[in-house]
């Protein structure tokens, strides 16, 4: 039964259950020191949290037992709650790139591909990676996928893939991969088992963010042989499938980090009310109180932007333009929020005594991944120009 504006009572109950789990079970894990040398949670820690999520019935909560998905507006309610801790999406299996990969396979995968690759992902037993971005210094695809250098060609009942990829989130330790490569027919998308000896991880850099196991690897694909029945769809359809994944995955980033900034605001508010300086609580100093008030405004605007874009996606639209607008508006708003939270807390805000410092780092990275702000603005400006020309032809 729909409770209000297209969001069911079932979805509200799921979101409430996820919030309780994250606040009561996941947040205590934030002090857990099981981290790799890049500062990301180890797979041991992730799987331990997922077992607890499974027991609490909040593992992969946006995908229902019959395999159907909550709609996008309902998904937003759930993913925002999972994001209340940087560890929440990992524990609940709502984290990128897995969430976007599950969405794509759920929409476009054959029954055989779903059974082999999607099922263990939904069960939270494996991590996945999405192999698209390529090294900029080699002229490969970054924000412009048409620059793709990775190639594939048929060889009997297999396809052979060669190329280089970079910033492949979670590749180290992943068990499922989705690889995009270019053939004569156009882009192709393949499902692969990992690890594979034909894929060599060359480098995993230290990055400003530290919430994603496996980091963001640069790797070489050297004569990777993939059975033809592991291609998603037909040769030449790879970019179309990428578009199916693109807007929902872009928006789900907004959902999760909105949750993180809601929590950062809670922490900064608590600090400003408890800490006294110059004879009164910090919040009574206009400079501090106004920052928290501005955060309240930005949080609501971000929430409304997410809900609006999710509503567009729920009509069946690809929502490419709307998700670009939402990504810019939300990532920039969240950056302001995280920065103000750090500022309100002063020296404490730049330490690991709370998650505010990490949220600041993660949101700074978010302004770049899934398309930098400037690329989205450029794309929107092109649309404005096209529409103007059409109206003045």
List the helices and strands and how they pair.
Blueprint: E1 2-4, E2 7-8, H1 9-26, H2 43-55, H3 72-82, H4 88-92, H5 98-108, H6 111-122, E3 128-131, E4 151-155, E5 158-169, E6 176-183, E7 186-193, E8 199-203, E9 216-227, H7 238-274, E10 276-277, E11 280-281, H8 286-313, H9 320-345, H10 356-366, H11 373-391
Parallel strand pairs: 3-6
Antiparallel strand pairs: 1-2, 4-5, 5-9, 6-7, 8-9, 10-11
Descriptive overview:
By secondary structure, the protein is an alpha+beta fold. It has three domains: 2-122, Butyryl-Coa Dehydrogenase, subunit A, domain 1 (Orthogonal Bundle), CATH 1.10.540; 128-234, Butyryl-CoA Dehydrogenase, subunit A, domain 2 (Beta Barrel), CATH 2.40.110; 239-387, Butyryl-CoA Dehydrogenase, subunit A, domain 3, CATH 1.20.140.10. The chain is built from eleven helices and eleven strands. It has helices spanning 9-26, 43-55, 72-82, 88-92, 98-108, 111-122, 238-274, 286-313, 320-345, 356-366, 373-391, and strands spanning 2-4, 7-8, 128-131, 151-155, 158-169, 176-183, 186-193, 199-203, 216-227, 276-277, 280-281. The protein has a four-stranded antiparallel β-sheet, with no helix packed on it. A three-stranded mixed β-sheet has the order 3-6-7, covered by helices on one side. Strands 1-2 form a two-stranded antiparallel ribbon. Helix 3 (72-82) crosses helix 7. The chain is globular, with a radius of gyration of 21 Å. 46% of the residues are buried. The model has no long low-confidence stretch (mean pLDDT 95).
């Amino acid at each position: 039964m729909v409770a209000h504006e297209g969001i069911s009572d079932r979805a509200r109950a799921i979101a409430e259950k996820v919030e309780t789990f994250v606040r009561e079970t996941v947040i205590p894990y934030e002090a857990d020191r099981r981290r790799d040398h890049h500062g990301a949670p180890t797979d041991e820690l992730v799987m331990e949290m997922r077992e607890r999520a499974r027991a609490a019935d909040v593992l992969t909560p946006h995908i229902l037992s019959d395999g159907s998905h909550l709609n996008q507006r309902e998904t937003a309610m759930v993913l925002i709650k999972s994001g209340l801790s940087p560890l929440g999406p990992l524990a609940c299996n709502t984290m990128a790139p897995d969430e976007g990969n599950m969405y794509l396979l759920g929409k476009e995968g054959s029954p055989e591909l779903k059974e082999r690759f999607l099922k263990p992902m939904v069960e939270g037993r494996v991590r996945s990676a999405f192999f698209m971005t390529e090294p900029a210094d080699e002229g490969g695809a970054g924000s412009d996928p048409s620059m793709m250098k990775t190639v594939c060609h048929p060889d009997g009942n297999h396809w052979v893939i060669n190329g280089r990829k970079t910033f492949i989130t979670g590749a180290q330790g992943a068990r499922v991969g989705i690889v995009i490569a270019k053939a004569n027919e156009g882009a192709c998308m393949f499902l692969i088992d990992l690890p594979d000896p034909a894929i060599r991880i060359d480098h995993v850099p230290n990055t400003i963010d530290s919430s994603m196991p496996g980091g963001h690897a640069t790797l070489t694909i050297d004569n990777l042989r993939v059975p033809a029945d592991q291609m998603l769809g037909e040769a030449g359809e790879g970019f179309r499938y990428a578009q199916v994944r693109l807007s929902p995955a872009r928006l789900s980033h907004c959902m999760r980090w909105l949750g993180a900034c809601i929590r950062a605001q809670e922490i900064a508010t608590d600090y400003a009310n408890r800490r006294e300086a110059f004879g009164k609580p910090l919040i009574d100093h206009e400079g501090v109180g106004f920052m928290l008030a501005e955060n309240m405004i930005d949080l609501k605007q971000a929430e409304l932007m997410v809900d609006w874009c999710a509503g567009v996606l729920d009509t069946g639209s690809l929502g490419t333009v709307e998700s670009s607008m939402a990504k810019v508006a939300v990532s920039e708003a969240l950056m302001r929020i995280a920065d103000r939270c750090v500022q309100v807390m002063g020296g404490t805000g730049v330490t690991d005594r709370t998650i505010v410092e990490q949220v600041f780092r993660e949101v700074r990275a978010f302004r770049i991944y899934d398309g930098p702000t400037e690329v989205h603005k450029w794309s929107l400006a092109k649309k404005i120009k096209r529409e103007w020309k059409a109206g003045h032809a």
